[in-house]
């Protein structure tokens, strides 16, 4: 029989066992439950929505930044826009030293340079530059003709004075020091008549020696280019009528006193069209023609008009070329010594010594020779020693009497 106290303890145990199987927090009194009021629940919902929206906006913003970043980087790496025309090349007026003509150069949008020439009367606006470039051609382009100094003709491309007043005798002249010491010019003529002789002369003669090509020669364009690349100034040699013509015939298309001026000019142009890049014309023979002023005048006039010089080889004492050239204001030179009248190397050396004496007395002198082996050998040897004696060997254009540059 159980005691009353024992029954009471068992009742409490059953009650605890029942509570252990009940979920946590249940079977509590109503006073212990806590619930948010309706307003709080609404406010909390709004907070959750705001947090979710801000998180979505941040994610989208990061994606946008990632997408736009390469574009911005590409923009930074783009090359800078092309620089506009430089002031020095746009609307700049230059005065050509030979003619005084105005030359305006403008750079177009595609980078091309447009050159415009106008008379030398100016309104005084804008800068003016005096072009003081040294006369002569860039050695790298010496064998290439200046197209602005050529015109087409039935006889080929003929030399002319350029639109700016630039003359072929200036463009193709061999530059020299400008010093007023003792100067000597030596012209070796007849190149093109013998292939081996021409090659030997071009290879062996110093570049200061002027070379004259016979218009009736062969492979003249090739030899002209070799000579120009070698630094030589060149002339074209034209056949003129000698006193004993036709017994002594200089060759086809000889200029004759019996021909009309028109026919002689045509023959002159045939010779001129054989090559380019020469500074002037030299006679081949021609004692009779050179002494006839009526025949010579139109020929010299055409030579001067084309911006060329005329070299008289000095073979005729009756030549009127010097007097006519001064009257017509044509650049002109006259040879002082025939170097190889006697074709022996020692004899040529003596003539070269005579040429030196004339140069020391007068300040300058011109000697002419043919492209014979003896002449070439003597001139080569003498030229090597000339500088040691204070002599400057110059091209023939440097000693020409030029009315435009007195």
UniProtKB/TrEMBL annotation:
Organism, as annotated: Rhizobium lusitanum
Region (Disordered) residue spans: 71-106
Record's compositionally biased regions (Basic and acidic residues): 71-87
Keywords carried by this UniProt record: Membrane, Transmembrane, Transmembrane helix
Stored Pfam families: Polysacc_deac_2
Polar residues biased stretches: 91-106
Cited InterPro entries: Divergent_DAC, Glyco_hydro/deAcase_b/a-brl
Protein name, entry field: Divergent polysaccharide deacetylase family protein
Coiled coil: none
GO biological processes: carbohydrate metabolic process
Residues spanning the membrane: 42-60
CDD domains: CE4_DAC2
């Amino acid at each position: 029989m159980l005691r009353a106290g024992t029954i009471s303890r068992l009742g409490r145990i059953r009650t605890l066992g029942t509570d252990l199987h009940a979920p946590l927090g249940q079977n509590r009194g109503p006073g212990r439950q806590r619930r948010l009021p309706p307003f709080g629940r609404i406010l909390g919902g709004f907070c959750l929505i705001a947090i979710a929206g801000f998180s979505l906006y941040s994610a989208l913003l990061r994606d946008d930044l990632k997408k736009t970043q390469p574009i911005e980087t590409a923009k930074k790496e783009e090359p800078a826009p092309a620089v506009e025309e430089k002031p020095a090349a746009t609307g700049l007026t230059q005065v050509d030293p030979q003619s005084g003509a105005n030359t305006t150069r403008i750079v177009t949008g595609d980078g091309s340079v447009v050159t415009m020439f106008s008379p030398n009367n100016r309104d005084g606006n804008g800068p003016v530059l005096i072009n003081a470039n040294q006369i002569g051609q860039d050695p790298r382009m010496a064998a290439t003709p200046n197209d602005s100094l050529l015109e087409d003709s039935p006889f080929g491309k003929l030399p002319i004075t350029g639109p700016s007043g630039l003359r072929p005798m200036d463009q193709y002249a061999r530059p020299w020091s400008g010093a007023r010491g003792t100067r000597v010019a030596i012209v070796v003529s007849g190149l093109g008549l013998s292939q081996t002789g021409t090659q030997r002369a071009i290879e062996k003669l110093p570049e200061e020696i002027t070379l004259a090509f016979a218009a009736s020669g062969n492979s003249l364009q090739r030899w002209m280019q070799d000579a120009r690349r070698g630094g030589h100034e060149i002339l074209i040699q034209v056949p003129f009528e000698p006193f004993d013509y036709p017994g002594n015939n200089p060759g086809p298309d000889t200029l004759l006193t019996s021909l009309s001026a028109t026919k002689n000019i045509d023959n002159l142009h045939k010779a001129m069209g054989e090559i380019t890049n020469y500074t002037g014309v030299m006679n081949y023979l021609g004692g009779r023609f050179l002494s006839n002023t009526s025949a010579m005048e139109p020929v010299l006039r055409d030579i001067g008009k084309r911006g060329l010089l005329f070299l008289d080889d000095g073979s005729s004492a009756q030549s009127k070329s010097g007097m006519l050239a001064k009257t017509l204001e044509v650049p002109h030179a006259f040879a002082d010594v025939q170097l190889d009248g006697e074709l022996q190397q020692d004899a040529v050396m003596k003539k070269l010594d005579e040429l030196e004496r004339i140069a020391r007395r007068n300040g300058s002198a011109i000697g002419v020779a043919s492209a014979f082996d003896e002449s070439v050998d003597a001139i080569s040897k003498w030229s090597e020693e000339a500088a040691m004696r204070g002599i400057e060997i110059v091209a023939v254009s440097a000693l020409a009497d030029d009315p435009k540059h007195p």
